[in-house]
Every structure is written in structure tokens, then in C-alpha cells.
Amino acid sequence: MLRAARPKQWLKNLLVFAAPGTAGLLDDPGPLAWSAAVFVLFCAAASGTYLLNDVRDAARDRLHERKRARPVASGRLSAYLAAGVGVVLLLAAPAAVVPTGNWALLAVLVGYLVLTSAYTLVLRNITVLDLVAVAGCHVLRAVAGGAAVGVPLTRWFLIVVCLGALLVVAGKRETELRRTPGAARARGTLGGYSLGYLAQVRTMASAAMIVTYCLWALEDVVGTVSSVIHGASIVPFILLVLRYHLLVDRGVGEEPEEIALRDRPLQVGGVVLLLLVGLGVYLE
Questions:
Q1: HSE of 193 in the Cβ direction (CA atoms, 13 Å)?
Q2: 58 in the same domain as 180
Q3: 7 and 142, same structural domain?
Q4: How far apart, in whole angstroms, are the C-alpha atoms of residue 243 and residue 112?
């Protein structure tokens, strides 16, 4: 059951800390506790979605060289049990928010569940919209972090998050297309894309994201300590983007969470970026 819940993919839910972190609130126990609670709720909601998707796609997954090993597809986990637990998790996540009276957070969480359901039922079969839908799920995680602590999201934050999500999703699809045999490309919308198109999406998203991040990093008053640190953060940010492009071109971008857990240069760059952004924010 734990494996079917895909705990490695919970890494995506760390996005809920982004808005409170860049707002300089994570040194306060209250916002930190709220962010941690929202992280748990999104882990539950995401796992519920994964379980229901695995039940729905079990027959298709058995034809896939890697997905056939999933617990439901392989028969090691009962489809009825997986579906039951999935429904409980999906209902429990928004239900836990209701007593808090945080209606903004509840709206974002419900929106996330609606979007994931729409993707599973319809959008996954429509080219381009499937990219936008998956990227939108990542964005809603980041938006939920702001809603949890009442932080208004800046235009810089939203643009960088949206473009970063699109970059990762396009890279994932491109790697799937590289590694999927021709007969299986009809799965979902994968056969509707070309490697050249997805590479163009990656290039467009990363270029616009880098420009936006640079504008944000250089927006501070020149000469202050925070402005120098923010400016310095541009270097690891660009290096991270370049590293990700390299990994996708090597054909190892199918599972972004695996890259984050295994690629040492990416990890080092991420830590440096977080340190610089954190210092820039909390020294203001």
C-alpha cells in the first residue's frame, strides 16, 4: 500500500513551503506549522489520486515495461482495497481543512482534486492540455502554501512557478517519448507529440523563467546586502536549469522526483540556491 501511494512523489508537495519561505515567514512557528500541515494534506490527496489512477489503469499498466511492477497492476495489492483507501484519502484531505475555516486553502485543495480528476478522465487524452493540467497541479501546490498562511503571491513568484512546472512536465513527456517503444506511443497523448516540439516547449519555458527570475532577483535596491545575495542566486538558478536540460537530453527525466533524489549536482545546486534565496529574504 505504501509503495502504491508513491511516497517519492511527495517531494512535489514541498512546493507548499515556497510562498511562506520567500515571504520570510518560515522562522515563525505558526506559519511553519500551517505549511507542514498543508504538506501532509497534499500528500494524502496526491496518494489518493495515485491509488485510484492505478486501479483505473491497471490493464494498461500491465503492458508497460516499468509500470507493470506497480502493486495494483502486478496483483500484489487488491484493486478494491486500493480504491477504498484512495477514496478515504481524497475525502479526508479537504474534510480536515473545513474545521479551520480557511476557505481559501479549501478552495485551492478542492481545485487541485478537480483538476487531477479532470486530467485522469479527460485532459490526459488532449494534447497540450495534458501538459497544462499537470503543470497546473504543481502550481496549485505552491498557491496552497500562500493560502495557508495568508500570503499574497507576487507576479514574479507565479510566473516562475508556472514556467518551472511547464519545463518539468515537458521534460518528463520528452523522456517518455524517447524511451517508449513505437507501438506504445498511442498511450494517452504521447503519440501526439514530437521530440522537437517538446524540446521547444522546454526551451521557451526555461528562457522565460530565467528572465523572470533575473528581473525579480535584481529588483531590490542596489547596494543592500539582500540585493547582492539575490543577484548571486541567479548563478545557481541558471546552472540548475542547464543541468535539468542535460539530464532530459540524456533520457533520464521521466521521473523528476528520481532526479531530485539521485543527481548530486542538482542537489548541490538546489541547496546553494535555497541558501542564497533564504539569506536574501531573511536578512531584509
A1: 31
A2: no
A3: yes
A4: 29
CA dihedral 235, 241, 243, 244 (to 10 degrees): 160
The predicted-structure confidence for 180-202, as pLDDT tens digits, reads as follows 655 354 456 788 888 999 999 99
- Cβ neighbourhood burial of 244 (10 Å; 0-12, 13-18, 19+): buried
Residues 146 and 159 reside in one and the same domain: no
Residue 212's contacts (CB-CB under 8 Å, 6 or more residues apart) are: 156, 159, 160, 163
Q: What is the distance between the alpha carbons of residues 67 and 64, in angstroms, rounded to a whole number?
A: 5
- Percentage of the chain surpassing pLDDT 70? 95
Residues 138 and 183 reside in one and the same domain:
no
- pTM to 2 decimals? 0.90
CA-CA distance, 59 to 78, in Å (whole number)? 14
Answer yes or no: do 137 and 194 share one domain. no
Q: What type of residue is 106?
A: L
Domain residues for the domain of 207 are: 154-284
**Are 4 and 54 contacting, i.e. CB atoms less than 8 angstroms apart?**
yes
DSSP 267-283: HHHHHHHHHHHHHHHHT
Say which CATH number the domain at 134 has. 1.10.357
* Separation CA 18–CA 191 (nearest Å): 34
Per-position DSSP letters for 161-179, written without gaps between them:
HHHHHHHHHHHHHHHHHHH
Residue 80: pLDDT band by 50, 70, 90 thresholds? very high
Q: What per-residue string of b and e applies to 61-84 under the rule 16 or more CB within 10 Å gives b?
A: beebeebeebbbbeeebebeebbe
